[in-house]
Amino acid sequence: MASRLTEISLDCHDVDLLADFWTAALDWVVLHREPGLVELGPERREDQELLDAVRSGPVPPTMFLASVEEDKAVKNRMHLDLSPIDRSQDEEVARLLALGASRADVGQTGEETWQVLADPEGNEFCVLRSLAEGHFTL
Fold it and tell me: Which intervals hold domain Glyoxalase-like (predicted)?
């Protein structure tokens, strides 16, 4: 059996600012909070239930936000891709911009089908095509 992706960690200055942004962006909740560290995820599960689920197949990873002193210096080498499920790509981009995201230039040509944004601390992520009914076809 292979390993499972269970957590994504993101270093940042302000864990509370990014917790507010990412919980709203992903419709997640804060699962755990302590000074300098916040865990976000889709829901809270009992430990044994979560362990059984992880052992039986992939589950959505949680996100850890960890406070660090260093500034972000260059483009992320790994980033998140978000797919809107109940609205158009443009409507989702507008919603994320209203939550505090900003547009990011990572060298795109303008021909891409995705849009590149950055969270309030500058971590790039992409908004892919919409998966909403009427927007996505196979």
Answer: 8-128
